[in-house]
Amino acid sequence: MANKVNTQNFQELVLNSAKPVLVDFYADWCGPCKMLTPVIEQIAAESDAYEVYKLNVDEAPEIAAKYGVMSIPTLIVFKDGKESGKTIGVQSKQTILNLLA
């Protein structure tokens, strides 16, 4: 299951991770975000090669702004503390896995 990340633990869990990290920028009221959730959960459950986190943009707007998240859902992959890939909108599972590769 994808765990939640917030302003307090973003640095530690995402930027300092030894593994690639997929962050799902979402909001509870966002319909497309809800459509993407089962895919994100599948990806989170399938491998230990990467970490998967969800970040609620309403609870952490400064992080969303820092990474240029203007519409949701936005998925960003971080490797070695840096952004390495980004998609906006609902994506196929394969597209998301390709980002992590």
Structure notes:
36% of the residues lie in helices and 27% in strands. It is α/β, with parallel strands linked by helices. The two termini are 20 Å apart. 30% of the residues are buried.
Strand order of the largest sheet: 1-3-2-4-5
Unreliable spans? none
Instruction: Report how far apart the termini are.
Output: 20 Å
Strand content: 25-35%
Furnish the topology, listing elements before pairings.
Elements: E1 3-4, H1 10-15, E2 21-26, H2 31-46, E3 51-56, H3 61-66, E4 74-79, E5 82-88, H4 93-100
Main attributes of the structure:
single chain, 101 residues, alpha/beta, five-stranded mixed sheet, 4 helices, 36% helix, 27% strand
Summarize the structure.
The chain is of the alpha/beta class.
